[in-house]
Amino acid sequence: MYRYIKGTVEEINLDSIVIENNGIGYSIMMSSNAISRYSIGDNAKVYTKLIVREDDMYLCGFYSGEERKMFDLLTSVSKIGPKVGLSILSFAEPKQLGAYIISGDITKLSKAPGVGKKTAERIVLELKDKIDKTAVEFEPTLLETKPAVFTEDEAVDALMALGYTQAESKEAVSFVKSPGMNTEDIIKKALIYISSKMMK
């Protein structure tokens, strides 16, 4: 129900926007990252999810299907409700969150509003195998300025942290590497290479 709503942005608030569609103003709760993408007067398409509680009913909104999918994953974790899910999405983009989760970065995740160390550990435990490894975004590292051999080693280590074997990781990195590539580029292309092999 209410998969998405198209209309004109009439109001922008700290944690929500109002979209008018056919004379009806829909108040939609969103992450701050999503809200920052809109301006009053925009003709917008907002992906939505209707949340029904015993004493309340409200719409949560997302700027993309990817953000909505991450919200669904986060709120499937025990003790994470819609408001905490949106606050986590305000902390980082879906691709960044995916990278934190599959690499088990408890420190980064625990910095999100409403998320402590125990909750971050639950997120990693329950979602690590559900994240699309080809749709994540690793943060740039200082290793990008080091000689290529170190960049390659860092890429192999990152792939192994995602659950691939050393042999798979080395093969993928050797296949995709080329002069001038940084660590992040190597990891992204290596993930695509591994996924294409698995589909054959």
UniProtKB/TrEMBL annotation:
Entry keywords, A to Z: Cytoplasm, DNA damage, DNA recombination, DNA repair, DNA-binding
UniProt keyword DNA repair, yes or no: yes
SMART domains: HhH1 (SM00278)
Helix-hairpin-helix DNA-binding motif class domain span: 72-91, 107-126
Subcellular location: Cytoplasm
Superkingdom as given in the UniProt entry: Bacteria
Quaternary structure note: Homotetramer. Forms an RuvA(8)-RuvB(12)-Holliday junction (HJ) complex. HJ DNA is sandwiched between 2 RuvA tetramers; dsDNA enters through RuvA and exits via RuvB. An RuvB hexamer assembles on each DNA strand where it exits the tetramer. Each RuvB hexamer is contacted by two RuvA subunits (via domain III) on 2 adjacent RuvB subunits; this complex drives branch migration. In the full resolvosome a probable DNA-RuvA(4)-RuvB(12)-RuvC(2) complex forms which resolves the HJ.
Protein name in the entry: Holliday junction branch migration complex subunit RuvA
Native source species: Peptacetobacter hominis
